[in-house]
Amino acid sequence: MKTQLFLIIFIIITILELFFGSFEEYIYLHYFTKPAIVVSLLVFFVSNSKHLPTFIKRFTILALFFSLLGDVLLMFVANAETFFIAGLVSFLIAHIMYILVFLRNRNTKMNSTPFILLLLLYATGLFWLIKDGLGDLLIPVLVYMSVILTMATTAFSQKGMILHAGYVYVFVGAIFFMLSDSLLAINKFHNELPLSNVSIMATYALAQILIVLGILKSYKK
To answer: How many domains does the chain have?
Structure first.
C-alpha cells in the first residue's frame, strides 16, 4: 500500500473515531473505528516492512498487536475496572516491545542525561497532579510511567544510528505517546478533561503513525 493512500485512509479512520467516540448515540460505531486505527497501521507496516531487519519487524508488530489489545480492553472499562488494569498491562508490554526495537540502535556514545532529567521533571509534575486519585493503582501507574519514560529515552538515544528522517519521526512519535498517556492519566485520576476522547485519541493516533513511519524510514530500502 502506498504511503499517500494509507495516510488518507488513516486520517479518515481517526476522524471517524474522534467523532463516534465523542457522542453517546454513536458509541456502537466507536467499537469499530477505535481498533481500526491500529489494525490499519498493522496492515500498512507488514506490507511495507520487507526491507527491515527481522528483529525490528517482529517486535514492531508485537508492539502494535499489544497496542490493539490495549485499545480493545480500554473500551470496556465502564463494565469493570479490571479492564483498565488489563489495558494498562497490554500497553505496558507494547511500550516494552518498542523499547527493544529502539535499543537495537542505541547510540552508546550519546549523553542522554539532560534529556532524562527533563523527563523526570515532567513525570514528577504529572505524578504530583494525579497522586491523590491513584488509590490502589499507585504502584501499577508508577511502573507504567517508568516504562513509558524509558521508551521515550530509548527513542531519543537512537540519534546518529539510523536515518535522520526515521529518527525524527520516531522521537516525535514517542513524545506524543507520552503526552497521550499523560492526558489519559489526568482525565482518569485528576479531573475529567473537556473533549477528552478527542485530545487523547488524536495524540495517540499521531504517536503511533509517527513511530511506524519512523521505523520504516530508519532503514534504506
So the answer is: 1
Which residue has cell 469493570? 80
Task: Decide if 87 contacts 116 (C-beta within 8 A).
Answer: no
* φ, ψ dihedrals at 143, nearest 5°: -65, -45
Locate 96 and state its grid cell. 516494552
pLDDT band at 194 (very low <50, low <70, confident <90, very high): confident
67 vs 4, 89, 138, CA distance in Å?
Answer: 23, 10, 22
Exposed, middle or buried by CB within 10 Å (0-12, 13-18, 19+), for 60? Answer: buried
Helix (H, G, I), strand (E, B) or coil at 77: coil
Q: Which domain holds residue 157?
A: 3-217
pLDDT band at residue 1 under the 50/70/90 scheme: low
Cα three-residue angle 157-170-213, rounded to 5 degrees: 150
H-only helix segments in the chain: 3-20, 27-48, 54-74, 82-103, 113-130, 138-156, 164-189, 196-217
- Radius of gyration of the chain, Cα coordinates, nearest whole angstrom: 17
Nearest Cα to 90, choosing from 106, 76, 110, 111? 76
